[in-house]
Amino acid sequence: PAETAWLLLAADLTGLPALARILRGLAPGVTAYAYVEVPELADRQPLPSPATLHLTWRTPQDGPGRLVADVRGFTPPAGPGYVWFAGEAADSRAVRRHVRGTLGWPVERYRSLGYWQRDKERWDRRYAEVGPGLESVYREAVAAGHSSTEALELYDEALAAAGL
User: CB–CB of 141/151 below 8 Å?
Assistant: First the structure.
């Protein structure tokens, strides 16, 4: 949103190009806090931005779920903020639950994207069992007047409740 004073951005290697694009497009005067996980520290790259950038690089050696822990442990500064996450799907859901559930933020103040799935074969098998029945959650939410973002949140909650 236009009045955003600061951003919290977190991404693994799959989300790094999008994160770099976001940083390049920020206005001067905005503050961005970015956590980026790359396979090795040698994979770091310049991330230019006209914003004031506080950047932390992570590697898998920092521990599993480190980006989720970074988001959960972040202390928001004053002013209206925005959270953006891109990475593994289960981590994306964990970030979304934290921002929406724990912090109580509306869907307009965050975006959490799952770019890939850990243990995809198991997920695909489970989805084949229950997924088609859950797809109506999204359609019914939109029909009830929810925005597509809110409907997606409800669908994602249904997937999580089904073990996906």
Answer: yes
pLDDT > 90? residue 85 = yes
Query: Rounded to the nearest 5 degrees, what angle is found at the Cα of 94, between the Cα atoms of 90 and 9?
Result: 100
Angle between helices 148-161 and 120-143 (to 10 degrees): 140
Residue 44 near residue 38 (C-beta atoms within 8 A): yes
Q: Angle of helix 89-97 relative to helix 148-161, nearest 10 degrees?
A: 110
DSSP β-bridge partners for residue 113: 86
The pLDDT, as a whole number, for residue 132 is 84
Residue 6 tokens, joined:
């600061």
The alpha carbon of 116 is separated from its chain's Cα centroid by a whole number of angstroms, namely 12
Asked whether the beta carbons of 85 and 16 are under 8 A apart, the reply is no
Residue position matching structure tokens 């693994």? 12
Per DSSP (E only), the strands in the chain are: 6-11, 31-37, 52-58, 81-88, 110-116
Q: In angstroms, rounded to a whole number, what is the distance separating the alpha carbons of residues 88 and 119? A: 10
Kind of pairing between the strands at 52-58 and 31-37: parallel
pLDDT in tens, 105-154: 998 999 999 988 888 888 788 889 888 888 899 999 999 999 888 888 88
